[in-house]
Amino acid sequence: MDSVTSDARAPLSASADNGLKIVVVGGFGVGKTTLVRSVSEIRPLNTEETMTQAGEAVDDISEVRGKSATTVAFDFGRITLDARNVLYLFGAPGQERFWFLWDRLFSGTLGAVVLVDTRRIDDSWYAIDRLEHHGTPFIVACNDFGGPTHTPAQIREALDLDPHVPLLDCDARSRESSKRVLITLVEHLQSLHARHGAATAEDALTAPEPAL
Questions:
Q1: Quick check: helix, strand or coil at residue 41?
Q2: pTM
Q3: Over the stretch 78-109, which tens digit does the pLDDT of each residue have?
Q4: Paired residues of 71 in beta bridges
Q5: Where are the alpha helices (DSSP H) in the chain?
């Protein structure tokens, strides 16, 4: 199993009041492990194995020739929002043969980041489909691989995204860029919560009075 290079990370603080589970999902080789590593304040737990020639018969690596390791279960990291709230990050494996693990990872998930390589848009459809099936809120982040640029409208159309789903560019190697992705997700979740609360209050105001 691949060891993670040691670097300066913030110490693990005492348990927070609210642990918020977030899943980073997407196709094979889109940068999920890289994003978790770049933003985690603790040394990330990785379940990576070295890719072999035998695996080439199972996994399509034609678009990720430089990839030498692959996640076989999940990646795990942590980032503190404030004294009471912590995000627990789970990076899902991208290969099709490990997709059966996704439904388990989605259990108890507050929200998700769908990481996209715009050179391989089709690889993102399954992730979006499963999140919508589970009713899990998500945002879409396009990782920069230096390929042809696409307008947000083109990407939204290709992914058939709801207009309310946030879409942004990112560089998964950059801690600041990855933090911006997570902040966008948290703000989206807060917006959905506020919208739901307002709708509930409006329903209560318009509900007929009970007969006496």
A1: coil
A2: 0.75
A3: 999 888 889 999 999 866 666 678 788 888 99
A4: 48
A5: 32-39, 102-106, 125-134, 152-159, 175-206
Other C-beta atoms closer than 10 Å to the C-beta of 104 total: 10
What's the CA gap between 116 and 26, in Å, rounded?
Answer: 6
Exposure string (b/e) for 46-63, b if CB count within 10 Å is 16 or more?
A: bbbeebeeeeeeebebee
- Other Cβ atoms less than 10 A from the Cβ of 200: the count is 10
Query: pLDDT tens-digit profile of 53-84?
Result: 544 444 454 554 554 454 445 789 999 988 88
**Which residue, among 138, 151, 142, has the nearest Cα to 185 in the 3D structure?**
138
User: How does pLDDT run across 143-181, given as a tens digit for each residue?
Assistant: 998 877 899 999 999 999 999 999 999 999 999 999 999
Domains in the chain: ranges and CATH: 18-206 (3.40.50.300)
Taking the C-alpha atoms of residue 115 and residue 168, their distance in angstroms, rounded to an integer, is 10
The closest of 145, 90, 100 to 121, measured between CA atoms, is 145
Which has the closest alpha carbon to 32: 72, 87, 2?
72
Identify the CA nearest to 32 among candidates 177, 172, 179, 137.
172
Task: State the sign of the Cα–Cα–Cα–Cα dihedral 191, 194, 199, 200.
Answer: positive
